[in-house]
Amino acid sequence: MLSSNLLSALSLLTLPLASAFYLPGTAPRDYHEGEKIDVFVNTLTPMLNSKLHSLISHDYYDDRFHFCQPAGGPVKQPESLGSILFGDRILTSPYEINMMENSTCKSLCQSSVPKEDAKFINDRIKEDYGLNFIIDGLPSSEMKRDLKTNEIFLDAQGFNLGDDETIPDKPALNNHYDIFIQYHTKEGYSSKQYRVVGVLVYPRTVNSMVSGSNSPDCFATQPLYLSEATHNEFYYTYSVSFIPSDIPWGLRWDAYLHVFDPKIHWFSLINSLVIVGFLVFMVAMVLYRTISKDISRYNAIDLSEDVQEDYGWKLVHGEVFRLPPRPMVLSVMVGNGTHLIMMCIVTLLFALFGFLSPSNRGSLATVLLICWTLFGCVSGYVSSRTYSTLGGDQWKPNLILTTILFPIVVFSIIGLLNLFLIFSSASGAVPFGTILAILLLWFLISAPLCVAGYFFGMKHGSFKNPVSTSSIPRQIPPKPWYLNPFPSAVLGGILPFGAAFVELYFVLSSLFGNRAYYAFGFLFLTFTVFVLTTATTTVLFTYFVLCSEEYRWHWRSFLIGGGSAFWLFTYGIWYWASRLSLDSFTSVVLYFGYLFLFTLLDFLIGGSIGYIATYFAIRRLYSSIRVD
Ligand SMILES: *[C@@H]1O[C@H](CO)[C@@H](O)[C@H](O)[C@H]1NC(C)=O
């Protein structure tokens, strides 16, 4: 009882949280009666209903679809970099919609589909592809009811290309669209003006060809099946109705900002917060009590006896700062990881404060890109200081690797996936101009900033270690299996992953399922929890490692911190096996390409958190003991 009250009270909180994400992006457009409203078409994307069948988007004017084209050919609309990166390709269309003019069964054009393209279209219908129109900046949507909360919302996933559910294995093409435009009347002017506040599109299939007549009959009862054996002729038709609405223009996006299952978000968040809070508290207590006991004992022994007897982590005080192998790679990874952490934090803050308006398409990707470009200096600075702390003396190769290694890896993965998309003639491929723009951003801004950051870091130099390193390395006694690098990374990754995986499910669904994601408040808190858990588990593990007289902690701390990447990848495989049923090889390659990229990013982010947290914890630990 109490808990359900608590939950409903908390879910009320999601409302301001959700509407806080709204920011009026573009100025409202006032239409006079009869004024033309532009209809733009975007790519066709697979819809996430129960399962997702594909990850490839197709251009609306792909020749194989035979959609009606505007006179003079479609015209590309200007888009932001982020919008293009996220797969938008927005073009003009031949639809004629005039403000306040209802129309019924208007013919768009007569389309003819040869048999080989009929198969292509039927396959896309079976894969649940959806069409995406953009009318006055609003995505076309269907009104849906959230079965869990009973709320009505607008699902901006688009509307179905066809229907393959009424009769299984007999896909019918939706060739008629009932378009409902909700408008709001602006009073107080000499002539009335209207604003568009909602766009609903309900598609249906109708074999509207009437023999002996050259106008379509949209109310015929036969569905339209495209034959894969003969040539097909049919009409594309549409009806438009203007429906008055009392939604003010400023709130027209609210119906789209639907947070699916807010209770689950809250529940998972509270759950992980409680677990994590408890953990952090436990770890802090255990560490604090043992260590302070250790410290007072060590210091007491030093005072009372001549023969000093060390054990546990204190034994390795002469070893902890012994330089690790491959400081070059470690510092490059820590530098780039910190760069990514900064990028995530700032982007999430932007999202949290509502600067990423949904009316500004692709703003999330744009902000990510800008943050990534500008924080190039962070990677240089951190890498340089880490490298000199690790005793590296070849600063030139280190500078070059910090600047180019990670971008090259990421660009190559994305480039390969892009090539793959181009060969499979899908439209998700990033156009050449966009690639060039990103390369220029990197080369002209990010890379120079990284170099500047590097020199700034060199000026600050290395961190001073609190204890000196002995000249002869100690023998390392045998230790339990779980303190070896790989098992400890896998074990250490469980908690951070466990704290984040419910939110991850929603992120994956919106990323691959083309479903808008607005729960940035949850995402921000989840990220915070992830950072805290990663840092604590790594420090705890490293403490155990040191207690077992194993002093090679540098690489271990990075691996343990990055251990959640292992679970992320495993989870990605599970998600693929249970939630997706990707039909084409291209989709599978695309999915695993992106999954690998996320895993890599997670590894760098987690690893850097682990390394940095451990480094400062160890400095703190060893500066508190007296060493003679
Ligand atoms: C258009 O049609 C809708 C219902 O289909 C009706 O409510 C509305 O008044 C009509 N508008 C005009 C301008 O005729």
Structure characterization notes:
It is a single chain. The chain is of the alpha+beta class and 628 residues long. The chain folds into two domains: 23-251, no CATH class; 262-273 and 326-463 and 483-622, no CATH class. Helix content is 49%, strand content 13%. It is built from 14 helices and 17 strands. It has helices at residues 2-19, 81-85, 115-126, 262-304, 327-352, 363-374, 376-389, 395-423, 432-460, 485-512, 520-547, 554-561, 564-579, 585-623; strands at 36-37, 39-41, 45-46, 91-92, 97-98, 103-113, 129-131, 133-135, 138-139, 142-145, 152-155, 159-160, 162-163, 172-173, 176-186, 193-204, 232-244. The strands form six sheets. The protein has a four-stranded antiparallel β-sheet, with no helix packed on it. A four-stranded mixed β-sheet has the order 6-17-15-16. Helix 5 (327-352) packs antiparallel against helix 7 (376-389), helix 7 packs across helix 9 and helix 11 (520-547) crosses helix 14 (585-623). The chain is elongated. The model is unreliable at 1-25 (pLDDT under 50). Bound molecules: 2-acetamido-2-deoxy-beta-D-glucopyranose. Residues 100, 102, 241-243 line the site of 2-acetamido-2-deoxy-beta-D-glucopyranose. This is Transmembrane 9 superfamily member. The chain crosses the membrane at residues 266-288, 329-356, 362-383, 404-423, 435-456, 489-512, 518-546, 558-577, 589-618. Belongs to the nonaspanin (TM9SF) (TC 9.A.2) family. Keywords: Membrane, Signal, Transmembrane, Transmembrane helix. One of its GO terms (biological process) is vacuolar transport.
